[in-house]
Amino acid sequence: MITVKFFGLISIDTNMRQIFANEGTVRDVLDQVKQSCPDISEQQLKQAVLFVNKEQISGNKRFSVMLNDGDELALLSPGSGG
């Protein structure tokens, strides 16, 4: 299982801190997140800052990164911080 953690406005909008998803690419996992949390918009998912196992992933290929059993995907809304 993949642990998907929510931070910033994404956590507030969903009123959730984490869910679990099946293995797959980041895109596959985000699709599972969307199904489990319909309050998250597609735009929020596309604009989120993504971290896999506490390392930021970026660029066009970030959605094709493979996530394996035990990995953690963190979603941080881009307006978070201070």
Q: How would you sum up this structure, described in words?
A:
The protein is an alpha+beta fold and 82 residues long. It has a single domain, classed as Beta-grasp domain (Ubiquitin-like (UB roll)), CATH 3.10.20.30. 28% of the residues lie in helices and 32% in strands. The protein is built from three helices and seven strands, in the order E-H-E-E-H-H-E-E-E-E. It has helices at residues 9-14, 26-36, 42-47, and strands at 2-7, 18-21, 24-25, 49-52, 55-57, 66-67, 72-76. It has a five-stranded mixed sheet. A two-stranded antiparallel sheet has the order 3-6. Strand 4 and strand 5 (55-57) form a beta hairpin. The radius of gyration is 11 Å and the shape is globular. It starts with a strand and ends in a 6-residue tail after the last strand.
Task: List its salient traits.
Ubiquitin-like (UB roll), five-stranded mixed beta sheet, 3 helices, 32% strand, two-stranded antiparallel ribbon, 82 residues, alpha+beta
Give me the secondary-structure topology.
Layout: E1 2-7, H1 9-14, E2 18-21, E3 24-25, H2 26-36, H3 42-47, E4 49-52, E5 55-57, E6 66-67, E7 72-76
Parallel strand pairs: 1-7
Antiparallel strand pairs: 1-2, 3-6, 4-5, 4-7
